[in-house]
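Class, study these two lines:
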Amino acid sequence: MAASPALGSARGRLRARVAAAGCAMAVCAAVAAPAAAEDDNAPRKPTVVLIHGAFADGSSWNGVIERLERRGYPVIAPANPLRGLTTDSAYIASVLDSVKGPIVLVGHSYGGAVISVAAAGNSRVKSLVYVSAQVLDKGESGQSLAARYPSELATAIKAVPYRAGGGVRGTDLYLKRDKLHRVFAADLPASTARLLAATQRPAATAAFSEKAKVAAWRQIPSWFLVARQDKTINPRQERFEAKRAHSHTVEINSSHVAMIAHPQAVTDLIIKAATATGSARPSPAANPSDSRARGESRPADAAAAWVIAGAVALLLGGVALLFGRRRRRPR
């Protein structure tokens, strides 16, 4: 049976509508593509720089590094020279200069004193994180602050003279092997404490006697983990430092080496500091119920939505026409 001229005309109109819908969908894809590319160029996560303290090395951060990297954070844990506050902070500042983009700077123990000086004047350091740390103000030394809040550390220190090239001489401070477990790492297995005792890196006396010349925590937001069972730095000193710096503070039941004994708690605090850095990561997704967030939609997103709506309308209209004509088709 030959098709009627009316039905042929209807089919032509249907083809035109479907073609228009296809074109609209293609335009939609072209409009949406730049938005996808924009997402791909979103700011990277900040680099987390971990600074160890006295009697330790970069490996003390291993558990934290593994967890941060699983979350997509770039991490470095450079060696802290442990030769003196002025020398050490200058060296760490030079390490920070080699890092691209925003930085979350973390210090444990004496490393806290180092980062407070090293970060001064560096606008890329967005957050400071202190883990059972020394946090010195300008004019303070680790020695002077610890005198106000005594701990058991004084009973566990062994002084060893050293010689270096050019006739340099000085005194290194070690932890006594039979005291390290109790004073430094009481919540770790004894076997782990023995390894820490054998591999400990000593600090020169200048690390504790030199005074801080600046205090970066006065300008940079900070987070602080207080170790309630710390016998190396008095927990009361840690609370005083955190309060003075207006740090976002958490407390856990830990020995001095919280990053080894409780790496997840330390990682969680670092991520809080990292995600609070507005310039270091994209803004969180807006709540759909927030009218202000809806008003801040990107123009490309709005355009794509209008094109999709038009394409759907054209397509549905064409389908409706086809079914209507078929129902009226003569037998």
Q: What stands out?
A: The CA atoms of residues 16 and 91 lie 71 Å apart. The radius of gyration is 31 Å. The longest helix spans residues 5-40. The chain has 14 helices and nine strands.
